[in-house]
Write a structure and sequence with these properties.
single chain, five-stranded mixed beta sheet, 6 helices, 5 strands, globular
C-alpha cells in the first residue's frame, strides 16, 4: 500500500507532513491516517473548500486568488506552504481542483487538479486532468497526491 510506504519513509527520515485539501474534501488526510501509527508523522490537515478558508486558514494571497482562481498552480503551492507553516511540519501537500460534475469551463475543465508538495527548501506542483465521476476524480487526485509525496520524500537527502 502506497500510504504505508510513505509512512515508512517519513518515519525513517524523521519527517512530518500536513495537508491542505479542497476538491478532495479530506480524502488525502483519511488515506494517510488509514496507516496505523500515522500520528508519528501526520500532524493534521485543513479542508479549505471555500476561498475564504484558503485565505484565513492557510494565508493564501487574496490578490493571487482573484487573478488566478482557486484552481491554479500558485494557489496549490500557497496551500501546501500555508498548511506546512501553520502546522509546523517538514512537508505540506496542497490539492485544489474541479471534481464536477458542474463547475468546469473551457479553460478549467472538470477534472482539472493541481497538486503541490513543499518543504522549506523545495516545492513541486503538478497539473492533472482526471476523467470520470466526481468520486473517481477525488480518488485519482488523492492517489496522485500520495504518489507525489512519496517521490518528494525520496528526493530528500
Amino acid at each position: 500500500m502506497l500510504a504505508s510506504r510513505v509512512g515508512q519513509l517519513l518515519r525513517q527520515r524523521n519527517l512530518t507532513v500536513s495537508v491542505a485539501e479542497s476538491c478532495t474534501g479530506g480524502r488525502l488526510g483519511d488515506r494517510i491516517t488509514d496507516v496505523p501509527g500515522s500520528s508519528d508523522y501526520f500532524m493534521g490537515g485543513v479542508i479549505s473548500y471555500s476561498n475564504a478558508a484558503k485565505v484565513n486558514l492557510l494565508g493564501v494571497d487574496s490578490a493571487v486568488l482573484a487573478s488566478k482562481g482557486a484552481v491554479s498552480r500558485p494557489i496549490a503551492i500557497q496551500m501546501a506552504s500555508g498548511v506546512r507553516r501553520r502546522l509546523k511540519t517538514a512537508i505540506g501537500v496542497g490539492v485544489t481542483g474541479i471534481a464536477g460534475p458542474a463547475g468546469g469551463s473551457r479553460a478549467k475543465p472538470v477534472g482539472l487538479v493541481f497538486i503541490a508538495v513543499c518543504s522549506d527548501a523545495n516545492a513541486t506542483c503538478a497539473k492533472k486532468i482526471f476523467k470520470g465521476s466526481r468520486t473517481s476524480i477525488k480518488m485519482q487526485s488523492t492517489e496522485e497526491a500520495v504518489r507525489m509525496l512519496q517521490e518528494f520524500i525520496l528526493k530528500i537527502q
